[in-house]
Amino acid sequence: MGETMREEHSTYILAIETSCDETAVAIIKDGTEVIANVVASQIKSHQRFGGVVPEVASRHHVEQITYVLEQALTEATMTIEEIDAIAVTEGPGLVGALLVGVSAAKALAFAHQKPLIGVHHIAGHIYANRLQEEFSFPLLALVVSGGHTELILMNEHGSFEVIGETRDDAAGEAYDKVARTMHLPYPGGPEVDRLAHLGQDTLQFPRVWLEEDSLDFSFSGLKSAVINKLHNADQQGLILKKEDIAASFQASVVEVLTEKTYRAANQNRVKQVIVAGGVAANKGLRTALAERFDQTDIQLSIPPFALCTDNAAMIGAAAMVAYQKGNRADWAMNANPGLDLEAYGRR
Amino acid sequence: MTILAIDTSNEMMGLALYHDQKIIAEYVSSNKNQHSTRLMPAINQIMADAHLKPKELTKIVVAKGPGSYTGVRIGLSVAKTMAWSLQIPIVGLSSLQALAYSAKPYQTMICPFFDARRGLVYTGLYNQHGKVVMTDQNLLMTDWLAQLKKDEQKCVFISPDIAVYQEQIIEVLGDQALFADSGFNYARPSMLAFAGADMGAQSVHELVPNYIRLVEAEVKWLEARRNQGNA
Ligand SMILES: [Zn+2]
Hints:
heterodimer, A: alpha/beta, Nucleotidyltransferase, domain 5, 2 domains, five-stranded mixed beta sheet, 10 strands, B: alpha/beta, 7 helices, about 40% helix, binds zinc ion, metal-binding (chain A), tRNA N6-adenosine threonylcarbamoyltransferase (chain A), tRNA N(6)-L-threonylcarbamoyladenine synthase activity (chain A), transferase (chain A), iron (chain A)
């Protein structure tokens, strides 16, 4: 069946992603079409620890990797022989977790003598959107996740300029810490989002804008303000409504993210704004951005929920650009937990 | 039968190619923290030297630990993915057993071990044919030597970390302890290949590392659950 389905002039990339707590394999056609997309989540295992334990994550990856590879090929009704290249997340991420994917990708590429491509995880998050619609350059990407809060300008495929980034905590990290202080179940981000919609912004937490023309972010002050407020209320025997705390915190985060994204988009006269990363699934952020860009000529794109969180489809989409540029990794390729996005784009 | 044997479970990286009941290539290199960058280039080189293509392999044998967690995972990720995608059988062998095979000529009990720091070792007991007598464990060398002393059997100690414990072993066991010549104190990938040649295949999906130790966070979690249960 696989034989007949494969289109001769198309490029099929098998991509592997193991940078954190999802073991994922996908098969992508021409960088734009999902043929198979399998994600084995470890959330249940890490829940008992209240966060991702790197050694536990690495152990799960090695237990799951061949199952997930097999499921992806089955879903695609393809054989490895029909794949044109093997791609893998090279970094950033947890080094022990990345190593499982990198080792598996190298073994697969070697066993079947296929080209090997290393992919930057954040490039992947941005390219998730290309599985939905084509890019219009210049383009601005707001990448928000547990590890990242960045504004990235792209003038063409495969080129990345970081024009704003967090100086301390990532937005997702602030969400997780606030959730933990509120004793919400792990993972806390989605729970804060859910509660925020049931409450009001009554507590008026600070909005941190930094210098007047800065596109950078800072969330650690806000996080501390929330934690202090909770502790003080505790000591005074006051009971704050959980919903209001969540709503007030979220209002501050969302306002800063939305405003800076809007400013950066106008300054750089971009045609399209892409929101990427796990926090792009946040309803409050989606709504605020949609309202802010509603009356503009700028196209706002947010991938569907399943493509916002970590997956391998996005890695396969980003890999297509590297493949076309002729970027090939050799057998000595390593996991690189500190891989730089701009340097990756200059390859 | 054409076998590729892989051992990255400890500091020595070892590779061997076995073809028609003979070793046709073997590569061993001390390789601290470089398994990730050096394993695939070495596999590529050893296969090219032997004029073998990946598709000509008929079996993979891999050392599955104990040892460095990361090292074990690199070896298993490569071995499992190759075996699965080439659809050939895989055998995972204890890294201690692989080490024990080096001491078969001694005709006594064999005690292979790896230093696990703070007085702890990974160790087990094997007979002169390299078969398991006491399964692999992680314990204090002091406790392990006390157990062996009670057994009163002669035993040859073999380990890349022999220098760390030799004095202590002699002190407790005296004549009961034998020591291999220095050249035998590391796992030979050729022995791994020979051992794996005779063994039945395991399920590639179910083959997992032999860490012996739980993750620290899991130990604490289990402890907390146990305390809750008692309260
Ligand atoms: Zn991510």
